[in-house]
Every structure is written in C-alpha cells, then in structure tokens.
Amino acid sequence: MDIRFDNAGVNYGARTALSPLSLTLRERRIGVIGLNGSGKTTFARLINGLVKPTTGRVTVNDLDTVSDAAKVLGKVGYIFQSPQNQIILPIVRDDIAYGLKARGYDKAKINAAVEGVLGRFGASHLGSRRAHELSGGELQMAALCSVLVTGPDILILDEPTNQLDLKNRALVQKTVMGLPESVIVISHDLPLLEDFERVLLFDQGRLLADAPAGEAIARYRELAA
Ligand SMILES: Nc1ncnc2c1ncn2[C@@H]1O[C@H](COP(=O)(O)OP(=O)(O)OP(=O)(O)O)[C@@H](O)[C@H]1O
Ligand SMILES: [Mg+2]
C-alpha cells in the first residue's frame, strides 16, 4: 500500500478540520490518536474519498481519491465510528452479500464468499441474525465481514473497540492484529495501538506527532494532562 497526502487539507466553511499536510503511509499497522474533534475521522475519510480535500490531493496506490473515486472505494474498506450506520439490510448474511451483488457476482459465488468470510472470523452463527439485535461486539464483527468480503487492500477502522466489553475488545484486537490487509486504526483505546509501527497524533487539525506507538502515545498523554 502507498497512501500519499500532498499538501492535503480540509475546511468546512471558515473552520479548518485538517490543516494541509504531506506524508506517505506504507506501514501495515498505523494508528491515529488525538482528542475529540482533533481531525482523526476527517483524516481517515480523506483516504477512501468520503471526504474530499479542500486543498492539495490524496492518492492511494497512485489513484487520486477525487478523480479515481470509485476505484479508491474498492481498495479502501472503512468501518464507521458507529457501525450500525453502515449496515444496510436487516439480516447479517444479506448485508454481507450486498456489496458483492452490486458487483454483479453470481449467486453461488456470492454465497461461497459470504460463508467464507463469516467462517474466517468465527462468525458463522451471526449469519442469520438480525443486525439491529446484535451486541456491540457482534455488530463490529458483522461490519468487518461486510467490508472485508469485497477484498479491500486497506482497512480503516474508526474506533473499533468503542463501547465493547473486555471479551469483545480482545476478540476485535486479535482479529485486527491477525488481518493480512494493511490496517489504519483510529482509537481512544491506547493499549490497542501499543504494538503499532506508526502512530499519528492530531491536535486541533494539525499533525503533532508521527512516531512509533510508544513515543506518540507519550506525547498524547502530555497533551491531555
Ligand atoms: N461535516 C462537517 N461539517 C462541519 N464541521 C465538521 C464536519 N465534520 C467534522 N467537522 C469538524 O471538524 C473537526 C474535526 O472533526 P473529526 O470528526 O475529524 O474529529 P475526530 O478527531 O474524529 O473526533 P472524535 O474523537 O470526537 O471522533 C471538528 O471540529 C468537527 O466539528
Ligand atoms: Mg472521529
């Protein structure tokens, strides 16, 4: 993976959500931390084109997130801060199949892919459940299946352990760390990011630190003290 920010920034009217920044991301595990409203989600959404840069540009494997938006969306999977907002169909299995149907795959191929991804995450028992009845941890797993079934190279998780109990948190941590895909995790759950190669700390829309996890987390603790 090769994600490049070239002087990319985001303004909402007069408000600067993200000051222009330039960097290249190639590590397999990247964390994003910072106080509420510091620009983390805005930064992450630039990567899959959900947010367009007001200045500069962002590319993913040389694809521009604005002019090649559809291709970028196929490469970068995104799990929302509140995954219930991205589940479209009532039954988990149907929701996972949705993205594949949209790609015109035949029924047998779709069924095999859906059962395959559920099996991969030990979530086969969730297939016939109603999404709105799932617990927070189950919902996170269902969202992970719905996104990963389409085969993205890069996965962005926005606060994946938010509101999870210790058991589900451990399950999500183990699952995320075991993924072969490149992963970008936004989190207030600092121990989750402890082993990450690179952690970006944002403060008031500015990139304040870009360092291995230990160093970036220490800066964050100073900032919040
Ligand atoms: N669509 C929008 N319109 C106007 N302002 C926005 C919009 N989205 C975000 N902002 C503002 O941009 C800033 C950064 O928001 P962002 O959601 O990126 O923060 P965050 O670091 O993800 O926060 P949190 O930890 O609370 O999720 C905030 O001041 C926010 O109010
Ligand atoms: Mg956020």
Q: Can you identify the CATH class?
A: Alpha Beta
Number of strands: 10
- Report strand order across the widest sheet: 6-7-8-3-9-10
CATH homologous superfamily name? P-loop containing nucleotide triphosphate hydrolases
Q: Which ions, cofactors or small ligands are bound in this entry?
A: adenosine-5'-triphosphate, magnesium ion
The CATH topology assignment is Rossmann fold
Q: Work out the strand percent.
A: 25-35%
Shape: globular
Number of domains: 1
Given as residue ranges, the uncertain stretches (5+ residues, pLDDT < 50) are none
Largest sheet: 6 strands, mixed
- Mean pLDDT across the residues is 94
Terminus-to-terminus distance: 35 Å
Structural class: alpha/beta
Q: Could you spell the SSE succession in H and E letters?
A: EEEHEEHEHHHEHEEEH
What integer value in Å does the Rg equal?
17 Å
Query: What proportion of the residues is helical, as a percent range?
Result: 25-40%
CATH architectural label: 3-Layer(aba) Sandwich
Query: Count the helices. How many?
Result: 7
